[in-house]
Specification:
Length: about 525
């Protein structure tokens, strides 16, 4: 198939005298995106991103003053268009037939619109300037919730048009950059909320259990695993019904190990690892004790009917899942070991790939299409009804702190929210709902903030945006988890014993002194 790579010059792409372009445009690509002059983009691509570490985020936010808040705003103001520009250039370097895929094209347009918006923001000089800038950031964060599923669908549809290794490299780069932008943007929003809060006192000493912005100072590994385990068990119960026994999740090792981290990142990774293990162990147990289960495993209706018929059958409890925490001088390692039968050898080459094998593409496309928006947090792994178990105290503290933002910023956010509807309902972005005196529960009632009984801090925004069925498998949990793990210089590895089980190893930097791992440089000659 003949296609025109976007590494051609802009004049070559837009020239009406280019017969090769006309042939492609007329024959294969009836709706090409609007390409733009790239002189301004070149200027931003020529700039380097300035990576940060968790420790820098903590130190900067610990002694928050007006001058520091303004400095943070201007850092974000210049970093966002720089990082977005490099990713736009990466998309322009894709083969033309790939970047004109409807899903990739939509992401391109979102990125270009964001780039144009942020590059035009003038220097932040006052707190009023900062509040307006925060509203712009929140708007963009909300608009870009469609990026992950759009990219995933686009990559699957283009898996036969481009080398899968290159597609995976593109996906890893663009997703890591996306995480980096959301980290600095959400951190600044949180710092602004803190600064504007009536309870905030500059220079006050923070306890070890508090957050600085989005960074949790003392993330206890055991607590995270406990919380994720409860969520995944609830998810499995919704998927398999009340009569299917679930595996016990046993935690051992260095139970007091802790580290600074962004809670939503570690929760997502641990949640995905436990979800994979629980699913594998439960289904291995069902296949062993219910011979007909293997036949109906892929058909939800037939599987539910079979499980109902077998409700009185006494199914033995499956093997437990062992989670071991190991703390060293510089790292905390979490090992998740299961006896779920291991991974088929045919699937191993595609385990960390977003493109996957062609034989599963159609099913994955259908599944991903059911999740139009995705922020990749633990909240989205929960059941579609949005009902959550009580959460642990550390998340409650985070949520309670977010409840105390100033009335002025809250009013601006509410005014903006009035003009933004998603699917006919108000989509309460978590940076705004966290500032309400009350929070909206999914049982239809408003309840005062209660650390012992409320929704997950992210649930209000994400559960309404992504009603993900409990047994819906997207096939991107492991590769996306690895992107999250490697972002803060960690590692995620997997060892499979086919016919027995899997060991997964998550290594985390304990000190928080590792810079975010960015692949920011795009080539200057792309267009």
């Amino acid at each position: 198939m003949l296609y025109l790579p976007l590494s051609a010059t802009f004049s070559q792409i837009t020239s009406n005298n280019s017969s090769s372009y006309r042939g492609i445009h007329d024959t294969h690509i009836p709706q090409a995106p609007k390409w733009r002059p790239v002189t301004v983009l070149d200027e931003w691509v020529g700039k380097e991103a300035r990576p940060i570490s968790l420790r820098q985020l903590m130190v900067f936010g610990r002694s928050l003053t007006e001058a520091r808040l303004i400095s943070s705003a201007n850092y974000v103001r210049t970093e966002l268009p720089t990082r977005i520009a490099h990713r736009i250039r990466d998309m322009q370097r894709l083969p033309y037939v790939v970047v004109t895929n409807p899903h990739i094209q939509e992401v391109y347009e979102l990125y270009y619109a964001a780039f144009e918006t942020f590059r035009r923001v003038r220097e932040i000089k006052t707190l009023d300037d900062n509040d307006k800038f925060c509203s712009t950031i929140a708007s963009m964060l909300r608009a870009h919730l469609t990026v992950i599923p759009k990219l995933a669908m686009g990559v699957l549809q283009c898996s036969e048009l481009m080398d899968n290794t290159e597609l995976d490299r593109f996906m890893n780069t663009i997703l890591r950059s996306r995480i980096s932008r959301r980290v600095i943007a959400e951190q600044h929003l949180s710092l602004t909320e803190t600064f504007n809060a009536p309870w905030f006192s500059p220079g006050a000493k923070l306890s070890e259990t508090e957050f600085i912005g989005e960074v949790f100072l003392k993330c206890v590994a055991k607590d995270v695993i406990d919380k994720c385990g409860r969520t995944i068990n609830q998810l499995a119960r919704a998927a398999y019904g009340p009569h299917v026994p679930l595996p016990e999740i046993k935690i051992n090792g260095h139970l007091e190990a802790n580290f600074p981290y962004i809670l939503s990142h570690i929760e997502y990774v641990v949640g995905e690892l436990l979800r994979n293990s629980v699913t594998a162990v439960v289904e291995q147990n069902l296949r062993h004790h219910i011979p007909m289960y293997s036949i109906h495993a892929q058909d939800q209706a037939a599987r539910e009917e079979l499980m109902y018929k077998m409700r009185d059958k006494c199914i033995p409890k499956p093997h437990q899942i062992e989670v071991t925490i190991c703390e060293s001088a510089q790292h905390v390692t979490i090992r998740v070991s299961d006896r779920g039968g291991g991974i088929d050898r045919d699937e191993l080459p595609y385990l960390w790939s977003f493109a996957k094998s062609h034989k599963s593409s159609d099913r994955r496309l259908e599944n991903i299409s059911q999740v139009p928006k995705m922020a990749a947090t633990l909240a989205e792994l929960g059941p579609a009804d949005g009902i959550w178990p009580n959460i642990d105290p550390q998340a409650a503290d985070h949520h309670r702190g977010r409840e105390r933002e100033s009335a002025s910023f809250r009013k601006k956010s509410d005014e903006w929210d009035e003009h933004d509807k998603l699917d006919g309902k108000e989509a309460d972005d978590h940076h705004h709902t966290k500032g309400k005196g009350k929070e909206k529960h999914f049982d239809g009632g408003d309840k005062e903030d209660d650390p012992l009984n409320h929704t997950h801090p992210h649930a209000s925004s994400l559960s309404s945006l992504s009603s993900r069925p409990p047994n819906l498998r997207l096939g991107m949990g492991l590769p996306l988890s690895r992107v999250y793990a490697e972002y803060w210089a960690g590692k995620l590895e997997l060892h499979s014993l086919e016919g027995y089980g899997v060991d997964m190893f998550l290594q985390i930097s304990k000190l928080g002194n590792k810079n975010e791992q960015l692949t920011t440089r795009a080539t200057m000659d792309a267009v």
